[in-house]
Amino acid sequence: MIRTATPADIPVIHALVRDLATYEKAPDEAKATEEQLREALFGERPAAFAHIAQDDASGDVVGFSLWFLNFSTWRGVHGIYLEDLYVRPEARGGGHGKALLTELARICVERGYERLEWSVLDWNEPSINFYQALGARPQDEWTVYRLTDDALTSLGSPPPAAS
Questions:
Q1: How sure is the predictor about 144, in pLDDT bands with cuts at 50, 70 and 90?
Q2: Cβ neighbours, 10 Å, residue 10
Q3: Would residue 131 show up in a list of annotated catalytic residues for this protein?
Q4: Burial degree of 57 (CB within 10 A; 0-12, 13-18, 19+)
Q5: Considering the entire predicted model, what is its pTM?
Q6: SS3 of 9, please?
Q7: Which of 100, 124, 125, 127 has the most CB atoms at less than 10 Å from its CB?
Q8: Distance in angstroms (rounded) separating the CA atoms of residues 66 and 48
Q9: What value does the mean pLDDT take over residues 66-94?
Q10: Active-site pick, 23, 86, 113, 131
Q11: Contact between 50 and 67 (Cβ < 8 Å)
Q12: 83 φ, ψ to 5°?
């Protein structure tokens, strides 16, 4: 079963984000707190959205997707950028990942969004194969760039006042 996340899901979403970071070999990079997730998903102006995958038999949460809107200047419409999709290892192969992506595709179709995009690590062959089996294609001609930490602060801070 796939459902929209609620504020009561914040602790499990936080735990799944940490599990995903460990899977992606970067546990120290997952610094988001439960409060930050709560504000982003359910604050006054939500900036992100989430869906929960529950096991049909047990009702246990086995995965999640977290996404936000992007915009294509070329197509003139919004799309969905999937920030995270994660299914616990013991639940993989049960259709939960496909169900999460199907729900996001349904939202795109229903709202007239023309893209559903995400990134995948080059070494993550099981995920790459899964995505390609669904019809997704890599955008090999694009390279993701990112500013964080000191580089972001340096670029975004005003220059020191002249003396």
A1: confident
A2: 19
A3: yes
A4: exposed
A5: 0.90
A6: helix
A7: 100
A8: 7
A9: 96
A10: 131
A11: yes
A12: -75, -45
